[in-house]
TrEMBL record:
<dbReference type="GO" id="GO:0000049">
    <property type="term" value="F:tRNA binding"/>
</dbReference>
<keyword id="KW-0378">Hydrolase</keyword>
<dbReference type="GO" id="GO:0006515">
    <property type="term" value="P:protein quality control for misfolded or incompletely synthesized proteins"/>
</dbReference>
<comment type="similarity">
    <text>Belongs to the PTH family.</text>
</comment>
<comment type="function">
    <text>Catalyzes the release of premature peptidyl moieties from peptidyl-tRNA molecules trapped in stalled 50S ribosomal subunits, and thus maintains levels of free tRNAs and 50S ribosomes.</text>
</comment>
<dbReference type="GO" id="GO:0072344">
    <property type="term" value="P:rescue of stalled ribosome"/>
</dbReference>
<keyword id="KW-0963">Cytoplasm</keyword>
<dbReference type="InterPro" id="IPR018171">
    <property type="entry name" value="Pept_tRNA_hydro_CS"/>
</dbReference>
<feature type="binding site">
    <location>
        <position position="70"/>
    </location>
    <ligand>
        <name>tRNA</name>
    </ligand>
</feature>
<dbReference type="InterPro" id="IPR001328">
    <property type="entry name" value="Pept_tRNA_hydro"/>
</dbReference>
<feature type="site" description="Stabilizes the basic form of H active site to accept a proton">
    <location>
        <position position="95"/>
    </location>
</feature>
<dbReference type="GO" id="GO:0004045">
    <property type="term" value="F:peptidyl-tRNA hydrolase activity"/>
</dbReference>
<dbReference type="GO" id="GO:0005737">
    <property type="term" value="C:cytoplasm"/>
</dbReference>
<dbReference type="Pfam" id="PF01195">
    <property type="entry name" value="Pept_tRNA_hydro"/>
</dbReference>
<feature type="site" description="Discriminates between blocked and unblocked aminoacyl-tRNA">
    <location>
        <position position="11"/>
    </location>
</feature>
<feature type="binding site">
    <location>
        <position position="116"/>
    </location>
    <ligand>
        <name>tRNA</name>
    </ligand>
</feature>
<feature type="active site" description="Proton acceptor">
    <location>
        <position position="21"/>
    </location>
</feature>
Length: 194
């Protein structure tokens, strides 16, 4: 079993581009830019930006839903059903409140932890048994901010948080070839000890 679909979560539109909730888009954008000839293009039947590419010799789909976060499952489910991608072959990249900026963790399955994008994907796939790459953005309380969570995720990170998130994305990009080959234990070990 290896990863055949990498999904970046975020909200569409220029007003959301730089917000914490778009960390998944940031990683997929960086990944696409790093691959020769890989360009995300609008695909109306999936309501998403999509690219087919090759990573570590494997065919891999990249997807960024063009729905809002809480409807992400529409795009993910549509592409997965069309190309017969099993849930355990999907990696969803998303912002994570429970990890500090600079942290990145890989895991399979588990609850949505209140993340509306994950909730909708779980509902669409009918299972929680897909992979997640969690990019830490911190929590307003642990960062000593008075914002509520909904407001926090829809704002830009402070400069020092942004550079830590970018470092975590760089670390995560280094393990993408391993997950595409199905070397999940090695990828997890490298990411969690890097």
């Amino acid at each position: 079993m290896h990863i055949r679909l990498i999904v970046g979560l975020g909200n569409p539109g220029p007003e959301y581009e730089q917000t914490r909730h778009n960390a998944g888009f940031w990683l997929v954008d960086n990944l696409a830019h790093s691959l020769p000839g890989c360009h995300l293009q609008r695909e109306s039947r999936f309501n998403a930006m999509v690219a087919k590419t090759s990573i570590a010799g494997k065919d891999v789909w990249l997807l960024e839903p063009l729905t809002f976060m809480n409807r992400s499952g529409q795009s993910v489910g549509a592409l997965a059903r069309f190309f017969k991608v099993a849930p355990e072959e999907i990696l969803v990249v998303h912002d994570e409140l429970d990890l500090p900026p600079g942290a990145a963790k890989l895991k399979r399955g588990g609850s949505s932890g209140g993340h509306n994008g994950l909730k909708d994907i779980t509902s669409s796939l009918g299972t929680q048994d897909y992979w997640r790459l969690r990019l830490g953005i911190g929590h307003p309380r642990t960062l000593n901010l008075q914002q509520n969570v909904a407001d926090f995720v829809l704002h830009r990170p402070r400069r020092e948080e942004q550079s830590l998130i970018e470092e975590a994305i760089d670390k995560a990009l280094r393990i993408v070839p391993m997950v595409c080959e199905g070397k999940m234990n090695a990828a997890t070990t490298q990411l969690h000890t890097d």
